[in-house]
Amino acid sequence: MRDHVPVATNDEAWLDEIKLAYLEAQKTIPFARALKSDITEAELFYMAPIVCLKFRAIENSSINRIKTTDAALTAYIANEKTNPGDLSHPMMAFSFCYLFAHTGIEILQVEQCQTLFCLVKNNLDKLK
């Protein structure tokens, strides 16, 4: 894994990055099991803010984790209430939180995240 992933500049690059980020999050499942903790694919969205920091080579400090996690989970809760079906697929939930985590560290704006999330919804088959 590269230490730093530049911010994607086109749709295909975003889809590739999201797929790589999801694969990175999946790597935590065996470690969680080894620690007698049970994390499932459906819960990988919790890892999205950490993967965001890792991919951007931003320090994984408590302040940065709070910023990215607050941004991702606040958006998740708001979207869950208005569009409950959007986040039912593990990849969709992860992608949503991954994108919105970027707003907490001021790399993306909300409108950009919304546009990119529509891209993910329309191309979910490419991410599997």
Structure at a glance:
Helix content is 66%, strand content 0%. With 128 residues, it is mainly alpha-helical. It is globular.
Describe this structure in words.
- The protein has 128 residues and is an all-alpha fold.
- The chain has one domain (11-127).
- It contains 7 helices and no strands.
- The protein has helices spanning 11-26, 28-34, 48-55, 62-82, 90-104, 110-122, 124-127.
Q: Percent of residues in helical segments?
A: 55-70%
Give the helices and strands as they follow along the chain: HHHHHHH
- Tell me the strand percentage band: under 5%
- Ends distance: 19 Å
Q: What class do helices, strands and sheet pairing give?
A: mainly alpha
Radius of gyration: 14 Å
Mean pLDDT: 92
Biggest sheet features: none
Number of discrete helical segments: 7
Please tell me the total number of domains: 1
Uncertain regions spanning at least 5 consecutive residues:
none
Which word captures the global form?
globular
* Oligomeric state of the chains present here: single chain
Number of strands: 0
